[in-house]
Design brief:
Helix content: under 10%
Mean pLDDT: 98
Shape: globular
Number of helices: 1
Structural class: mainly beta
Low-confidence stretches: none
Number of strands: 14
Largest sheet: 6 strands, mixed
Distance between the termini: 6 Å
Radius of gyration: 16 Å
Length: 202
């Protein structure tokens, strides 16, 4: 890879092609300058496949490729034992604002502010399976570009492909959260096996 974020922990999510909705998530630990695989799990991607993150358009159900930090974790369930990442419990008024007209675009809000339309946002408690446990990705997070997309997470599998997130089985999500350490500056790399969105480009 071109960049691993400079830390000692890395999660890779790779699809075979840009139009694929399934692939593999692998988590890695760097020790003495070398990366060692810690675990892996089958992954699901957006129903629209994968697309370059810097040019993604909201509402396309595509998973954005790129290298992203992991600001915090959240869930409708308690954090698994050993979790060190900042972890927020989902309550009845916890929302992810996806309203392009809102000052809170691509942010957790609790409660939902007046300028963030419910119809344009996601009430997290409405998805107790997928958001049983989840990680926020840094896609479009630091300085959000309105219209690029919001609410891209690594979360628990639902019934099929996602709306743009990456999902894994519940057991894998718990293992990842127990393993992550903020001090290791973990990142998530999303990409394909080859081509312009190849994982190795990021």
């Amino acid at each position: 890879m071109a960049d691993t974020g400079g830390g000692a922990q890395l999660i890779t999510a790779e699809a075979p092609t840009a139009d694929a909705t399934r692939g593999t998530v692998v988590w890695w630990q760097r020790h003495n300058g070398r990366w060692r695989q810690v675990g892996s799990a089958p992954a699901r991607f957006g129903s629209g496949g994968l697309t370059e993150g810097t040019t993604r358009v909201q509402g396309t159900s595509t998973t954005p490729t790129g290298l992203y930090d992991l600001p915090f974790a959240f869930g409708t369930e308690a954090a698994p034992p050993g979790t060190a990442m900042p972890y927020r419990r989902v309550g009845p008024d916890s929302w992810w604002c996806e309203d392009n007209a809102s000052a809170s675009y691509n942010r957790w809000v609790d409660p939902r502010p007046a300028d963030c339309a419910a119809a344009e946002s996601e009430r997290l408690a409405d998805h107790p399976v997928q958001y049983g446990r989840a990680l926020v990705t840094g896609f479009n997070y630091d300085r959000p570009v309105h219209g690029r997309g919001a609410g891209i997470f690594l979360h628990v599998n639902g019934k099929g492909a996602t709306a743009g997130c990456v999902s894994v089985p519940a057991g894998a999500m718990a293992r990842i959260l127990s393993w992550l350490r903020p001090s290791a500056h973990p990142h998530l790399a999303l990409g394909t096996a080859y081509g312009p969105t190849a994982l190795t480009r990021y």
